[in-house]
Amino acid sequence: MGIPASRRARYNPPMRQLRPRALAALAALVALAALSPGRAQTVGVSATLEALVRDAGLGEQVSITVLDATTGGRVFEHHPDLQLNPASNQKLVTAAAALTILGAETRFRTGLYGRVEGDAVVGGLVLRGMGDPSLHQSDLVELARDLERRGVRSVDEIVVDATYFDEQMLPPAFDQQPNEVAPFRAATGAISVDVNAYVLRVRPGDSVGAPARVDVDGDGYFRIESQITTSEGGAPNVIADQRVDGAQMRLTLRGSIPIGSAQLSYRRRIENPVVWSGHLLHDALVDTGIRVGGGVRVARSGSDAPLLALHQSRPLAELVTALGKQSDNFVAEMLFRDLGAERHHPGRVEDSIAAERAFLATAGVSGEPAIVNGSGLFEGNRISSGQLTQILVRAYNDPAISSEYVAHLAIGGVDGTLERRLRDLPAPRVVRAKTGTLDDAIALSGYVLGPTPARAYAFSVLVNGARGRQGAARTLADTVARTLAEELWRGRTAPQ
């Protein structure tokens, strides 16, 4: 029998007749109604995120934490203390420590030192560096020109002083992929040029069968044995093998390149960046018209030689964008080494780890993450989403680094490693985050910004065991960020 129309509006069925799921939903609504609006939103977004994690089905190696960026209040947690491989999210630690310890305004110095007699530098022209991750060949050319403008016309030898760091050039854990020659696995040195990667250039000869032309910068560092020939046609086929050969690098080449073909270029890592930098300076001096009588040697130099020419990098606040936006492993490892050298030099990896641990303690980060290197490459680093968000909250509220730290991150849907992700947000430019990708690890951590600086979330999503499921893990991370943005901007219109 139906309910009369006059009674439908005030009919209330007994509670025992409701289905269990409906009863739970009704209880949740009653609870939400009793809370303040802000607290109700927090409970609501927490329930949504819990359902997202459950539906993703990515297993137990998932750590997610969301904190209020201004107060540090907990919004959502899922295994917040589970330490996982953060992949490139380790760069968040490196950037925060570098900005805090070294200072956003820090510029890295590279100088030429020596004694001038007449128009000659005698006793060696010293190239001394202090860990500039942004030094380029063009900077060495400018140093050479400054020397020439001082009236210097000859140099008896070049001495490379890279003792600001110790002699360990390969970053920790990089030996896990020993045969990789791509630039992403570059070595480090207190003097490092062009992100410690050289360009191998190959051009065909003048006739079929003729040897191909091979060219590299700083060629005094290389021992090149080339059997590349010029072919009549077909596809280019260049095979290169590189090995350390004393103070040089042996480059063994074979294959062919068709006549009339355009120049081929291959970018590869340098084995010994300190020696190579000396040869690059040698070439810059010669090209400037300065004669170099001797060769290149690596040694500690005296501190009493006068400064003849100086190059200073851009401020650290600008350099760290390479970490957050481009996920540059080389810059991350160089800044990691700079942290150690700031404590003690020659800076050792152990000093770098100690510097980051001291920063974490000062920042109030609970527990003790496992720190191996500064970039997050390979296996070794371990940190939890709870610890990462504590760092994010500390940086957000530290007036000395807050602006620079937020600005160094990739912007969802706009630039860096997030250019093609998170384009469908309720307001533009509100997700600032660092991505992380390895074969078995996916990560995304950063900020979701609200309509005012006081309304923002710090979040971290770490997923391990993602091999074969990287797409699902990345979708979960993006959906977490999108959900937080929708909650912050619900009912608000973003300024145009």
Query: Which architecture of the largest domain would the CATH scheme give at its second level?
Result: 3-Layer(aba) Sandwich
Strand content: 15-25%
Coarse structural class? alpha/beta
Computed CA radius of gyration, to the nearest angstrom: 29 Å
Distance between the termini: 57 Å
Give the tally of β-strands: 19
Q: At the third CATH level, what is the topology name of the largest domain?
A: Beta-lactamase
Spans with pLDDT under 50 lasting ≥5 residues? 1-38
Rough outline: globular
Number of helical regions: 13
Give a quick account of the main beta sheet: strands, pairing sense, barrel closure: 7 strands, mixed
Helix fraction bin: 25-40%
Summarize the structure.
31% of the residues lie in helices and 25% in strands.
Layout of SSEs?
Elements lengths: L4 H4 L11 H15 L2 H20 L5 E7 L5 E5 L11 H12 L7 E9 L2 E10 L7 H13 L4 E2 L2 E4 L35 E7 L9 E3 L6 E10 L5 E9 L2 E11 L5 E6 L3 H16 L2 E2 L3 E3 L8 E6 L3 H4 L1 H4 L4 H15 L5 H14 L22 H12 L5 H6 L2 E2 L19 E8 L2 E9 L6 E9 L5 H20 L7
Parallel strand pairs: 4-5, 4-6, 5-13, 6-14, 9-11
Antiparallel strand pairs: 1-2, 1-19, 3-4, 3-15, 7-8, 7-12, 10-11, 16-17, 17-18, 18-19
